[in-house]
Amino acid sequence: MPKRFVVAASEFTDLPRFPVGFELAEALTAAARELHGTGTPGDTMHTAVTLAVRLLPAAEHADISEIQRGGRLRSLAWTHETVRFAAEPRQGGHTPHPDWERLWTTPVVRTDDSEADGGGNVLSGLGLRSALSLRLRADRRRLTVLTAYARKPQAFDEDATRIGRLFTAHVSLALDSATVREQLTEAMRTRDLIGQATGILMERLDIDAAGAFESLVKASQRENVKLRDLARRIVDANSGTGGRGVTER
Predict the structure, then answer these.
(1) Best exposed site among 35, 57, 179, 221 by fewest CB in 10 Å?
(2) DSSP for 128-152, written as a single string
(3) Could you give the CA distance from residue 63 to residue 223 in angstroms, rounded to a whole number?
(4) From residue 144, how far is each of 68, 73, 90, 222, 235 by CA, in Å?
């Protein structure tokens, strides 16, 4: 299960609360620097929700959620437990506000007043009257969405929406960059792990590198185990930390 992050909205107090004009450009530059300085996608989202509260006028809380086809929701980062509950309703599994379905076809959805139709939904039940949802990523199966929340109705105007769209453009780029870095790091670790396992098999089975790698691949297919996981098992077994090795059949 992916790691989840809880952050305090009091961080980054050096950023202006209501950036406009040149101040907005400076604030977005500072935000981009913070976002691109993170190490993993999770850290990027951790930083993004905090910055969203600082950058977006009237924002009190923010979260990043993943929405799958069919309405299933999962919180990835949040500034307060309240908005975590907003994104992950405990009963019924329904979407906090039905307008989120529109994010499949439009990059922004604004909820001006969750009590406009008599309330009774998750947002109004949590005392959240306004929401500004901005799409970060989208494919055929899922959306990644950043949402800012406020307790007063009609909190997010056109200026807030414009700032939100500029900000999420930076967040999306930072997320893509962090994801690529994470994938490259994992690829390097996997390569080293497979190399160690191949060396162990060369010594154990008295075969060359090509034969050892082929043996590893065959065992992976035979046992329906990822090559990386099988290599880790062999390395752990060889170092005495337990696990099963691989033998020729």
Answers:
(1) 221
(2) --EEEEEEEEE-SSEEEEEEEEESS
(3) 41
(4) 9, 10, 20, 37, 37
Give Cα 96 to chain centroid, integer Å. Answer: 19
Taking alpha carbons only, the member of 175, 119, 122 closest to residue 145 is: 175
Query: From CA 146, how far away is CA 137, in angstroms rounded?
Result: 10
Distance of CA 7 to the CA centre of its chain: 14
Helices (H), the chain: 21-36, 41-55, 81-87, 122-125, 158-205, 209-223, 227-238
Q: Token digits for 42?
A: 């999770």
Cβ–Cβ under 8 Å, residues 201 and 216: yes
Locus of tokens 């994104």: 87
- Using the Cα atoms of residue 5, residue 10, residue 11 and residue 17 in order, give the sign of their dihedral: positive
Closest CA to 193 of 234, 132, 143, 151: 234
- Written as six digits, the tokens of 220 are 């992976």
The model's pTM is: 0.71
- Structure confidence by residue, pLDDT tens digits, 113-170: 988 877 667 788 888 999 999 999 888 888 899 999 999 999 999 999 999 999 999 9
